[in-house]
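User: Please predict the structure of the protein below. I'd like the answer in structure-token form so I can feed it into my own downstream comparison script.

Assistant: Understood. Taking the following sequence of 217 residues as input:
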Amino acid sequence: MKTDTQLRHDVLDELQWEPSVDANQIGVMAKEGVITLTGLVTTFAEKVAAERVAKRVYGVRAVANDIAVHIPGDLARTDQEIAEAALHVLKWDAFAPDDRITVTVRDGRIILEGTVDSQYDKEAAGCAVRNLVGVKEVINSIVVKTEASPSEIKGLIESAFRRSAELDARRITVEVHGGKVVLHGNVSSWAEEEKAAQAAWAAPGVTEVDNQITVTP
């Protein structure tokens, strides 16, 4: 098992390797497998990217993202400009159901609301707007509403686990209560734990995922 010092160095090295972030502006602390990111970046997209990078490092069990977003003057946009851009990008994104989503912008923070059929649709909408210039944060309050039986949901998720080359389906169990999915088991990395949650969320009818999988590197 990695020491906190080794894990911190590995995350720093991975941030340096990633071209979408400026690693010199990001601080990293490690304690018992939990990584805390600090610092100041100029876009929300970079904050999200830094978290994604940290999660893919072997030995990371959780990430606390305390990076602040400060928009410099040349990248500043009014709330109206951001709202118009968000509506435009949702309209042209093939995976975002823009006809059921409303957009509110307050002080550079985008709030997405509405109802969609799957978590995939919800995440697609969030991904579509988070790279816009001037955005400080994206609050995704979209609600997932579909009709599917618990047995159907369970079967779809377990089949997805078995198909995945990145998951050991034998180490994960699935419970379904209405639209709520509970995952149990043990995996070897944070990335594998997150992949299991993503697979569960992709099933039609899932409204909540309680991920109780533990990570033991």
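That's the full token string. The mean pLDDT is 90.
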